[in-house]
Amino acid sequence: MTIFALSSAPGQSGVAVIRISGPETRSLIKMITKKNLPLPRTADLSKLYNINTSDLIDEGIVLWFPSPNSYTGEDMAELHVHGSRAVISSLQNTILNTKKCRIAEPGEFTKLAFINGKINLLKAEAIGDLIAAETQIQIDQAQNIIRGKSFSKFEKIRKKIIKILGTMEAKIDFPEEDIPNDVTKNIKKEVENIETEIKKILDDNKVGEKIRSGFKIAIVGPPNSGKSSLMNYFSKRDVSIVSEIAGTTRDVLETHLNFDGFPVIISDTAGIRASKDIIEREGIKLAFKKAEEADLRIVIIDPNNVEFFGFLNDLFDKSSILVINKTDLHDFKFPEQLKKYNPFSISVLKETNIDKLISEIKFILKKSLYTNTDVFITRERHRIDLNNCILSLQDFKNKNINEEFDKATEDLRVAARNLGKVVGKVDIEEILSSIFNDFCIGK
Ligand SMILES: Nc1nc2c(ncn2[C@@H]2O[C@H](COP(=O)(O)OP(=O)(O)OP(=O)(O)O)[C@@H](O)[C@H]2O)c(=O)[nH]1
Ligand SMILES: [Mg+2]
User: Fold this and answer.
1) Segment 239-242 long-range contacts (CB within 8 Å, at least 24 positions apart)
2) Which residue minimizes the CA distance to atom 12 of ligand 1?
3) Cα of 294 from ligand 2 centre, angstroms
4) Smallest CA separation from ligand 1 atom 16, residue
C-alpha cells in the first residue's frame, strides 16, 4: 500500500512538505511531474500538475528516495512546495486522484520504519518525543535514546538472560542427569545480578518520564491569596481570572512552560476553604488532587489567612514551598509562627522577591531532573515491562531448577520476552497501535 501525508504543520507556511511512501511512489511522481524520476536523493526543481486538468499547481522540489535507503525503507518521495492552503489541498487532491495511494494514519511513516527494521521501538518512540519537544532537556533525552544508549543496555541484559537459557537448555540433551549444583548456583547468582541491574534502572526517581511529560507544579492555598496572580506572572499572560472576590478560580487551569530550559506544567487551583457551594467544593477536591499528583507544591497564603497553616500539615512536605504574598500591604507583618517552614515573602503585585522564588524552583527542578544514568525510562509501558521482567526472574529464583526444570526455563523466557517488549523484539502487534496512535499524521 502506498501512503501520503502532509508532514509539515497544517496551515499557511513558507514551505510545506508532502511525503509519499510505498511501491506506487515511483509512478505517482512521474504522473504529477509529467517527466522521469529525478536522481535519487537529489533536489530537483520540478513543475507539479493537476493530473486531470493538466493545470500547473506549483513548482517545487522533488526528492526521490528509492528503497531501501529511505526513512520507511520503502520507495519514498518528498514534495517541497509553497505552503499555501490552496496549493496543499490541490496537490493532495491530485495525489488522491491518481488512485495509487491513501492518506497515512497518524505515525504510519515511523511505524513502517519500525516494521521494516529501520529503527527499533525505543527510537520510534523517541522520534515522537523529539517532535513534541518544547525544551532543550527534552531534545537531549530524545536524542540520547535515538542514539541507541537505552536500546543497547536493554538488549545487553536480554542477551544475558538468553545466554542463561542456552546453558539450561543444554540439559535437554541429557534428560536423565541433573544440572550440577555449582552450575545451578552460578545461574541463580547471574539471575540475581540481572535483577539488581534492572532494579537500578527502575530506581530513577522517574526522571525520564518527568522530562518527557513535564515537571508538575501545583499552586495551592486559600482563596484570594494570589494563586492566579502568580500563575499569570509565571506564564507572562492572563491564563487565569484575577479578582478580589474570594473563590474566583473554581477549576484547574494548566499551562505548559519552558522554565529556564526545563519543561514544566503549572496548575492554578481553586482556593481551599470550607464551602457550601457544590461547584466550589468540586474545585477544591480537584485542587487537593493536583497537589497530591504534583512534583512540587507552591503553597501560597497572604497575611489575611495565616490561620490557613492548619492545613499545611496535609499539603506540606519536602517538595513544597511556602510563599507569603502581598508583602506590599501597608500593614504587612511577617507571621513569625510560620518561620519554621522557611517561607518566601513576596509581592506579586509589586514583583518583589519573585526572582528568589524562581531561583528556588529552578534549584529544585535541577536537582530532580538531572541524572547520571544514560538509560531513560520515558514511559509507564517500559516500567511495567521491566517490573514484569523482575517478577519472572524472582519466580525463577524461587524454584528448584532440577525439580521444576520446565517451569523455570519458562520463567526465564517470560523475563526475556518482557525485556524484548521494551525494545520491540516480541509481541509487536499488541503494542504497535497504542504507540503509533500518539503520533500526528505525516510522521
Ligand atoms: N496588594 C496585593 N494584592 C495582590 C497581590 N497579589 C494578588 N493580589 C490581589 O489579590 C486578589 C486575589 O488575587 P488572585 O490572584 O485572584 O487570588 P487567588 O488566590 O487566585 O484567589 P481564588 O481564585 O479566589 O482562590 C486580587 O485582587 C489581586 O489583585 C499582591 O502581591 N499584593
Ligand atoms: Mg484564582
Assistant:
1) 239/268, 240/268
2) 224
3) 18
4) 242
Q: DSSP for 107-175?
A: THHHHHHHHTTSS-HHHHHHHHHHHH--SHHHHHHHHHHHTTHHHHHHHHHHHHHHHHHHHHHGGGGST
Rounded distance from Cα 226 to ligand 1 centre (Å): 3
Q: Which residues, at least 6 apart from 66, have a Cβ–Cβ distance to it below 8 Å?
A: 26, 40, 75
Q: How far is the CA of 210 from the centre of ligand 1 (A)?
A: 30
Tell me the CA–centroid distance for residue 8 and ligand 1, in Å.
Answer: 42
Q: Bridge partners of 203? A: none
Per-residue pLDDT at 430: 46
Rounded mean pLDDT for each run of 10 residues along the chain, 443 residues in total: 95 96 97 97 97 96 97 98 96 96 94 92 92 91 91 92 84 74 89 95 89 94 95 95 94 92 94 91 94 94 80 75 94 87 94 94 86 82 95 95 88 92 68 57 67
pLDDT the model gives residue 304: 82
Atom of ligand 1 nearest to the CA of 232: 15
Q: How far is the CA of 259 from the centre of ligand 2 (A)?
A: 21
Q: Quick one: which atom of ligand 1 is closest to the CA of 231?
A: 15
Nearest residue CA, atom 8 of ligand 1? 226
Task: Specify whether the CB–CB gap between 443 and 129 falls below 8 A.
Answer: no
| Set of cell numbers at residue 284 | 477544591
Q: CA-CA distance, 192 to 197, in Å (whole number)?
A: 9
Nearest ligand to the CA atom of 223:
1
Which bin fits 73, alpha (ψ -120 to 50), beta or left (φ > 0)?
A: left
Rg for the chain (alpha carbons), in Å? 29
CA of 17 to the centre of ligand 1 (A): 47
> What nine digits make up the cell of 363?
534549584
d(CA 142, CA 145): 5
Please tell me the predicted confidence (pLDDT) of residue 441: 65
Task: Name the strand (E) or helix (H) holding 13.
Answer: strand 13-21
pLDDT score for 43: 97
Dig out the grid coordinates for 420 from the structure: 524484548
Structural domains of the chain, ranges and CATH numbers in brackets: 3-104 (3.30.1360.120), 122-204+377-436 (1.20.120.430), 211-369 (3.40.50.300)
Which ligand sits nearest to residue 253's alpha carbon? 2
For 56, counting Cβ atoms within 10 Å of its Cβ (0-12 exposed, 13-18 middle, 19+ buried), the class is: exposed
Q: Any residues with Cβ below 6 Å from ligand 1, and which?
A: 223-229, 242-244, 246-249, 270-271, 325-326, 328-329, 347-349
